[in-house]
Amino acid sequence: MSRTQHDLTGRCRVCDAPISAFMSFGRMPIANGFLAAEEIANEYFFELAPAFCSQCSMFQLIEQPQPDKMFHGQYAFYSSTSRYMQLHFEAFAKAVMADVLPGRADPFVVELGSNDGIMLRHFYERGIRHLGVEPSQNVADVARGRGIRTISAFFNRKLAQDIVAEHGRADVMLAANVMCHIPDLPGVAAGARHLLKPDGVFIFEDPYLGDMIAKTSYDQVYDEHVFIFSATSIARAFAPHGLELVDVAPQITHGGSMRYTLAPKGSRPASARVAEQLAKERAQGLDRLETYQRFKENCEHSRARLMQTLEQLRKQGRRVVGYGATSKSTTVTNYCGITPQHVEFISDTTPIKQGKLSPGAHIPVRPYDEFTRAYPDYALLFAWNHAAEIREKEQAFLAAGGRWIVYVPDVKVVA
Ligand code: TMP
Ligand code: ZN
């Protein structure tokens, strides 16, 4: 460990216990900070160092950039770009309509981080009262353009009070890939307790710590993900605010996620799945620091293997192109030291990323047609969490002799 890593100490964002980083991914830019060449001189960097709180089991970043550096009018992430994610959120919305809404008069659904309305639109289309809370203006504008009621704000206790004053309490609160972005988790928990009806539920899902540890998918760690949750840490974080973990459901999205259902304490019985998940997490060691020290070693091993592969291909003069300029890829390119000499460009379907450079590593991002126009020898699958969708779509690439380089759970070249 270098000296700076030893200096990375702080207090747990949830329980205030002293914590210290168990590793550092080094100097990192904003994961979604795609930039033009003339912006390189002003690029922002911070130290990406995760810590584990032995007291409440929360996995968290020691340092996080100011929220306005990450979520702003130019936020480059539009949820609706993936067809699979659209289907996933439709299924999520339908599950809520089937399991929670029946028997409720004029139910009110609030979603935190509603992005471009990928999930709320299903409530809107059925005339269900809804409100999206989305701090990034550009994506919120897309949702509003579709008729989905959306306010641009950060959720906290004060905003919960304002929503209650204007709309009344919520039957359901939803969030997907959002809760792990909010540093003031206790503030959100208190706000949720205030906003929910006594028989209301808060259902949210995020990348799951158990999957990240099992697969060494360290690219889940980036500026926006201030936390990576487990059932253990969620139960402990919400209990002091009167919300109890009553259900869990694993999801395949984002390389392995968990859906958590919280309810005011005593309002409904907890499913047996909760106790089972907590036991599974103890067996996996998610509540012990040694597990994270081993994770650090696994990350170093993964980095060495990936760079060995890329270096070899570079020496052989093979063309390697990145597939999907994901936020996660910022951690991989910067932690591993991948340069435009290793990866010629990154193909991405998101218009506002195209023509820009990837954060930190400055690999050009180009439109998808450039990938199909002249297939490279290898495609480095940065969007590995969309592997099923992509491999189905890219059969012509394989037929042309192309090969995938993957790095989760292990570094390998696959057909
Ligand atoms: P995500 O992993 O954070 O969801 O980001 C996915 C990124 O990958 C997004 O910028 C869109 C891009 N992408 C493609 O370019 N092609 C694809 O087929 C898929 C699924 C995603
Ligand atoms: Zn803690």
Can you tell me about this structure?
The protein has 415 residues and is an alpha/beta fold. The chain is built from 15 helices and 20 strands. The chain has helices at residues 3-7, 67-70, 83-99, 120-125, 137-145, 157-167, 185-195, 209-215, 231-238, 272-284, 289-315, 327-336, 368-373, 387-393, 395-399, and strands spanning 9-11, 18-20, 27-29, 45-47, 50-52, 59-61, 108-112, 129-133, 150-151, 170-176, 196-207, 227-228, 243-251, 257-264, 320-323, 346-347, 365-366, 378-381, 403-406, 412-414. The strands form 5 sheets. A 7-stranded mixed β-sheet has the order 9-8-7-10-11-14-13. α6 runs parallel beside α7 (185-195). The longest helix has 27 residues, at 289-315. Mean pLDDT is 95; it is low at 1-6. Zinc ion (ZN) is lined by residues 12, 14-15, 17, 53, 55-56, 58.
Keywords:
6-stranded mixed beta sheet, 7-stranded mixed beta sheet, Rossmann fold, alpha/beta, binds zinc ion, 35% helix, globular, binds thymidine-5'-phosphate
Q: What would you say about this model in short?
A:
35% of the residues lie in helices and 21% in strands.
How would the blueprint of this fold be written?
Elements: H1 3-7, E1 9-11, E2 18-20, E3 27-29, E4 45-47, E5 50-52, E6 59-61, H2 67-70, H3 83-99, E7 108-112, H4 120-125, E8 129-133, H5 137-145, E9 150-151, H6 157-167, E10 170-176, H7 185-195, E11 196-207, H8 209-215, E12 227-228, H9 231-238, E13 243-251, E14 257-264, H10 272-284, H11 289-315, E15 320-323, H12 327-336, E16 346-347, E17 365-366, H13 368-373, E18 378-381, H14 387-393, H15 395-399, E19 403-406, E20 412-414
Parallel strand pairs: 7-8, 7-10, 8-9, 10-11, 15-16, 15-18, 16-17, 18-19
Antiparallel strand pairs: 1-2, 3-4, 5-6, 6-12, 11-14, 13-14, 19-20
Helix pairs in contact: 6-7
